[in-house]
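My current task is to audit a protein record that another person submitted. I have pasted the whole thing underneath without changing anything:
***
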Amino acid sequence: MAQIIHTSSLKLIACDLKMLKTILNGRAAMAAALSVDVPENWSEFGTQPIQWTHDQLASEPTHLNWLTYLGIHKKDQRLVSTCGYKGKPDAQGIVEIGYEVHPDYRLKGLATEIAQALVGHAFSQPKVKQVIAHTLAKKNESSSVLQKAGFSYYSKIDDPEDGLIWQWRATLRPL
């Protein structure tokens, strides 16, 4: 069953295969299925990550709740975020989070709320020992969000796709 994580302002809904197919069918289908307003440019990344999530979940159903979530603003009944994990915890108990917030809802604390919720959910799972995230290699809103959510800067990484990035870590249990 798809997980729903509640925060004070948001409802984070894990995408199952049915929801992913609905998203790929367009904004109107998604709005109807969720009964919320879906902004025209609801994701700066388009549907490519949704297709990737669909393919991952189709080939490995145990990834349910460890991939894409949709962030619904409770008061406004509007899709304001995509977020989630980049897969199940690995053999060392490490899971990675990612998030984006619609421009109309940025700088309102929602990204921090999302990061805290994802970290809290991850650490509620016995196998998770550490949560990681990546940002551009400079101080910015996202690095501030991660610090507020309990992350510490860990290292620089030369990513083949993104170039130089910073890795952040939040640890609850000893590795």
